[in-house]
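Researcher: Batch entry, complex prediction.
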Amino acid sequence: MDKFKLRLYITGKTPKSERAIANLKEICEKELKGLYVLQIIDVLESPQLAEDEKILATPTLIKDLPPPLKRIIGDLSDSDKVLLGLDLSPVLDSNQGKEDGR
Amino acid sequence: MNKTEASKGIEKIETGIEGFDTISEGGLPKGRATLIAGTSGSAKTVFAVQFLSEGIIKKDEPGVFITFEEPPEDIRKNVISLGWDVAKWEQEGKWAFVDASPVVGEDHVIAGEYDLGALLARIEYAVKKIGARRISMDSLGSIFARFSEAGLVRNELFKIATAVKQIGVTAIITAERTEEYGDIARFGIEEFVADNVIILRNVLESEKRRRTMEILKFRGTSHQKGEYPFTVIKNTGIVTIPLSGIELKQHSSTVRISSGNLELDKMCGGGFFRDSIILVSGATGCGKTMLSAEFAANATKNGERALILAFEESREQLFRNASGWGIDFEQMENDGILKVVCRYPEAEGLEDHLILMKSIIRDFKPHRVIVDSLSALERVSTIKGFREFVIALTSLIKHQEVAGLFTSTTGELMGGTSVTEAHISTITDTIILLRYVEMYGEMRRGITALKMRGSMHDKDIREFNIDGEGMHIGKSFSNVTGILSGHPVFTALEEVDRVRDLFKEA
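Model: Structure tokens for the complex:
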């Protein structure tokens, strides 16, 4: 399996940011243990990085690798949607099955 | 400065948009957000870009442009023709984009709660980076299309609007409307920036597009009310025509100038006043253009400059006709004392014609301005638009304190009036009527000074002829009545004398 390269953009240390970080770590540990690199970027500290990526909403998770590039917005509390966004679609509701190409 | 701020109430900053600062009585409320609402194609983006551009050009105030719709690359390209080099300003650190336009081919998944904190952080960062005093956000509608939770987006935008106020910059926020006369904006946007609202309209009226702007409200400060026409022109951008904002503050001169015809001067009690508006009305071919040519030639004789704005004839026609009356326009133009501008009325909208006239008058600084004919411009506009144009044109000429001579073609050969006259007669100082008089199977011409404000004048209707030396005014048609109504009736001379005696006091 390819290595996952993930970037999480947050705005300050708000409860929403903390939730997003915790949710993401949990999913990654469960599904991608040892197979991912995660970078956390605080937009308040590095606004230019947010400008470069045209980030509007936070938290935003960007999956750089493996392609295709995907954006997942929100505190990542909806883990099914997160997996769908990461193209990991696990357990599979049949209606989401199409997304499970790889 | 700070001490007086509270006592003065709300300060305004001049936008630099021509005409807008007049109707807004000083510009946009300083340190506040103003909503610019308009349908698609109503020049919202131009307004938003121009607000920043004028700030940079005229006041050296940097600006941040937040674009939700068009990518920065498109905006840079689109406004070059309006004379704004955004890319250069970006390099000089006077302009910064916050690019919130949609990323093509990239969609997102929503997985939980979010807010637009990153957008606010980027705006604050850009403002700080270049020391911005002005910001424009264009346009809010598209962000609602990208995030389905309208309530959340509205709430977030409210936060941004509040934050912008706190930073102390003056902001413009644009938003779409679905119809010209209806809700202020979609998605209830006006609710959070409701302090100041400006509406831009682009109405189709009698097959013609007419742009207007209206300041709906400025909370806590004054502005002119109603719709004002505006236009978007090359190398300038938006130009508003402030009709009622025009003050009639010109002086009145008692100095007389010659009409170019001694007899006509006599009829007018010694010539026209130097700063008056003269209307010459008549049917086609009865000598209006000749009278204006003589008026122009007379100016140049006295070393004054004359400007002829011709809308009926081509340059060649006009020059050839003038030489038929012994007037050499070509020589005068070479001497720099005459300028002839011929334009096709349909070539542009009335607003554009007006702006063009204004710039020519400003550059050439004529002593006399001739418009031949005003009625030709009538057909390119709606009646309302034409009336506004005439008022704006007269005030423009009066402000320069020069003489303006307008010709107007009447629809009927004999007698009659035109719409032009109905709109203009009260603002003119002098009205000269040229009329055909049918007499014993012959068309003859009559002239009369109908009105001569502030002066005695001849009330007779006199006969005149045109030959290779111009116009010759002769005796009055004392035994003809009904010339002006177009139904001449001949009366025996004895009857004329009898009627005259009737009013004589014994």
